[in-house]
User: Fold Transcriptional regulator from Terribacillus saccharophilus.
Amino acid sequence: MSKNVPNISESEWEIMKVLWDNSPRTANEVVSSLQGKADWKPKTIRTLLDRLTKKKVVGVNKEQRIYTFYPLYAEEECQRAETRSFIDRIYGGTMKSMLVQFMEEEALSEEDMEELRQILDKKTSK
Amino acid sequence: MSKNVPNISESEWEIMKVLWDNSPRTANEVVSSLQGKADWKPKTIRTLLDRLTKKKVVGVNKEQRIYTFYPLYAEEECQRAETRSFIDRIYGGTMKSMLVQFMEEEALSEEDMEELRQILDKKTSK
DNA sequence: TAGTCATTATTACACTTGTAATCCATGACT
DNA sequence: AGTCATGGATTACAAGTGTAATAATGACTA
Assistant:
């Protein structure tokens, strides 16, 4: 079983995305990666990294004088955890109602729809 | 266009569900409706109602001595707003990646999948 | 060797959220 | 008319978040 992923706040998610994209990274590298994406002072980013570390969502390598940070959970794992609690909260735990609502209104490309259809087919036939 | 829905916290959502289910209701009626669902003291529920009111997510009728509360936004509107910001945050704004991930793993019944397929068909053919 | 600079560590501070309790006013009851 | 219960208004208080600034420390430089 996957252990429980700690809560990751909105700002913290931005940091995590950078680390999932490429890690380990130093605080400065994280700062650079966020150029243009988030408008935070380096100190703020550092704080977020520290909090993630304290929460055990991020690990730190302190071998070098300049630390490097890396995720302790896979992105998919965290996405699933978030999505599950989100669906419970907002849609009363039933995935379908959300899918319906969003597939109805959301702009999905032809290819996207094709892909979804294939997934459905595969599941149905199995 | 729908005005921006204010943020609704996790606990507040529970209250909203009750009001969407049936409103207007008095604070006491809300308390009763939450029997067995959430384990809050009546005072807590009252606080949540007041906060929702202050946030303008809930309206109050003060004609009677005992107030009644009612939602100022439709449930769907709020669900959409939440879902949109959720997807942006967690899936980088692309609905599809989430759908794929969840359709792959989630237990959807035959009927659910049939319904989804029909929606896809309708959209594709259009 | 002392000063400077880059990093890390510590501290700050307001706002939101979870979770209530206390205070106050008014109608109902005696 | 005084009292009490009930609902509304105000207050509480800690944890989490957003957003940093300041202090301490170790490494390099003049």
